[in-house]
Amino acid sequence: xxxxxxxxxxxxxxxxxxxxxxxxxxxxxxxxxxxxxxxxxxxxxxxxxxxxxxxxxxxxxxxxxxxxxxxxxxxxxxxxxxxxxxxxxxxxxxxxxxxxxxxxxxxxxxxxxxxxxxxxxxxxxxxxxxxxxxxxxxxxxxxxxxxxxxxxxxxxxxxxxxxxxxxxxxxxxxxxxxxxxxxxxxxxxxxxxxxxxxxxxxxxxxxxxxxxxxxxxxxxxxxxxxxxxxxxxxxxxxxxxxxxxxxxxxxxxxxxxxxxxxxxxxxxxxxxxxxxxxxxxxxxxxxxxxxxxxxxxxxxxxxxxxxxxxxxxxxxxxxxxxxxxxxxxxxxxxxxxxxxxxxxxxxxxxxxxxxxxxxxxxxxxxxxxxxxxxxxxxxxxxxxxxxxxxxxxxxxxxxxxxxxxxxxxxxxxxxxxxxxxxxxxxxxxxxxxxxxxxxxxxxxxxxxxxxxxxxxxxxxxxxxxxxxxxxxxxxxxxxxxxxxxxxxxxxxxxxxxxxxxxxxxxxxxxxxxxxxxxxxxxxxxxxxxxxx
Length: 532
Hints:
The protein has 532 residues and is an alpha/beta fold. The protein has helices at 19-29, 73-90, 95-111, 113-124, 128-152, 180-193, 208-220, 232-241, 254-264, 289-299, 320-333, 363-378, 436-443, 459-466, 504-509; strands at residues 11-12, 41-43, 46-48, 52-57, 64-70, 165-166, 171-174, 198-202, 225-229, 247-251, 270-274, 280-283, 312-316, 342-343, 382-386, 407-410, 427-433, 449-455, 471-476, 496-499, 511-512, 521-522, 527-528.
């Protein structure tokens, strides 16, 4: 948007939230973590400027964010061996001391909260409120574990008294770029509380600066953390198959998850592999459209770039007109654009815009999504809504190649990717059905999901249908999410492999209990779902 003379609003990025200002402040805060051109790698408690430089750009406007130093396989292997040695001594540290150090690192992150959130906005395009929530959920969630960890380490998976011990080696963490704090750092801090050392890989697509700052604050408190940047193909043997690794925590897509599972197959290692699924709303015998409108609006947060987004709606035929009458105005009202651009006179975080989403993670992802939409249309899908980037909130002349306006299609055919795969972007599919059997078949199209929901006035029928939906969590007239604190999380079918997490299940996943213990999870030989 340009000048008020033509009726539009002049936008700018305040100096205080610019990339140079934010990185200047975090360099002053944790200068030990930086080499000349950018963050270093954390190995054996020391920040080392090793690796091949790789230029990083912001999806927000295509600007340079600096240089990532990608380590090679030999460096990663050495780092894992060093982490294993530290892991053994960390397990002997008294629980109260572990709690003290984790709490001190949380205090430091809380003090740096605004800058951590601004880094997220620049690195992965999160609007301000969502970036703050990512940091805040990490801090509040781990503080809950600090209070509850003693009881979790003193009982087994059945609730009987049992002293749980750290794993034989450190936990390796390979996570997606979309929630660096509330998923990755949160999980690492719980693993540390439980007595394990931690090895983490920086996502190559975004979040490396945020993770550097968080891990620097953790390392300052004496927490045994290792942080490595590099390509998964180069580092996978070291981070997955190394005999020193005690467990693997992975968050990503099914294709990468399948490769990881294959690498783990003969190792017997403890693992938690969170993979994508086509999360779905089923709409059957329903009438509360006003409430549903608010649910639909919330569903577009962060451009549906999260594992618990709902990009698919399976709708009873007789309700299609009412559904579209509620749904299409929501798409018209979605607000997207530059997450850090403010109107004239704005000069700080209090003036940052309230957007539903910013860019996708990269221009390449936006182009890939365009091709998926075009493919579905070529095969016969009916376009219901195609937004225009011209409706976004942008700076004059800004690079908008990573942005994607909302799109909705009716009945993408089976030959198209969007019929079976999660788009991980603001693209919805609508499927029309006539029977309950069709409803369930279309809701279960992706062979397992993390979450699903059913909208229905008949809650008894909805609960009966929910029992046949292949998702770990099924909501009745409400969204389901990953959850916080004591809420379990996992997946059904191909959406999850290994131990379930959340609450004490996360602690049980990264500790050893009594001999012969069968923890809750989705394993080749058995599946155990938590009673809740």
